[in-house]
Amino acid sequence: MSAPDAGHCERDAGLVARAADAVRGAIAPRQPRVAIVLGSGLGFFGEQLEGTVRVPYARIPGFPQPTVLGHAGELIAGTLEGVPVVAQSGRFHLYEGHDAWTAALPVRVFAVLGVRTILVTNAAGGIRRTFRPGTLMLIADHLNLTFRNPLTGPVEEGDERFPDMSDPYDADLRALARRVAAERGIALEEGVYAGLLGPSYETKAEIEMLKRCGADAVGMSTVAEVVAARARGLRCLGISTITNAAAGLGAQALAHQEVLETAERVKDQLASLVRGIVREL
Asked: Which residue has the higher pLDDT, 1 or 48?
């Protein structure tokens, strides 16, 4: 597997259409309106859907198998609160050697399938000092510090060449999320997510830099997907589960196992929040 390339990468121009055809055929007659991207340790949410059909990535052209613990490697189509949805259980991370175009491939497939709203979730390290493991953070904006962009190269059919990223996370959807959280008694913070390349966790100096840049949380995903979604005109909502304090802000050494354990601890709150949001859609 080659290293990520910040520039143009060779790709199959018809891959998005073929992948969408494969998914459409596998989930018919379901027609999802909302896509939910499940972050590390959040694959449990697939069990919340009703009338599901599961499509392993091996059956979808261009979809590689995830290599990270907590990412199953399948699409799950079904209904949630009566709304037809598709859940992506397993991301393609840049640090696994994928380019940004591949990381965003599922988003483009969702758009072709007719999805108009995408809800991205992730596990993140908390930079804001008031954040504790288990905090849920609504993403208000992001910093793309991966220095990779899924729009690099020839314009993909259906993409806008220069999408407006001044408000990538839909203001109305964020207001809806805050209202649902208040109604359900769920504490919901809001802040800026910094997306880094990974896979190493950040140094103390890097966290100090991110703090000065205005970041409240840091992770290794999400930004490529949201950029591609906006280029397709999709409405985006993002929720981070703060699974640990970032480097230098906590007493423990950072470990992926802690990420999974914290995600497990707050899964009921996150599931309730997402269900409430989707019901209103």
From this structure: 48
Question: Could you list the active site residues?
Answer: 40, 71, 93, 95-96, 123, 220-221, 244, 256
Q: Which residues contact 30 (CB under 8 A, 6 or more apart)?
A: 51, 53, 77, 78, 84, 86
Kindly tell me the burial class for residue 12, based on how many C-beta atoms sit within 10 Å of its own C-beta (0-12, 13-18, 19 or more): exposed
Report residue 244's pLDDT band, with 50, 70 and 90 as the boundaries.
confident
DSSP at 70? T
For residue 140, the model assigns a pLDDT of 98
Overall domain count for the chain: 1
User: Cα(88)–Cα(132) distance, rounded to whole angstroms?
Assistant: 27
* Other Cβ atoms within 10 Å of 250 Cβ, number: 15
Looking up residue 123, the CATH number of its domain turns out to be 3.40.50.1580
Q: Determine the structural domain holding residue 40 and report its residue range.
A: 15-280
Number of H helices, E strands in the chain: 8, 9
Q: List, for residues 162-182, the tens digit of each pLDDT value.
A: 999 999 999 999 999 999 999
- Distance of alpha carbon 65 from alpha carbon 57, whole angstroms: 6
Share of the chain above pLDDT 70, in %: 88
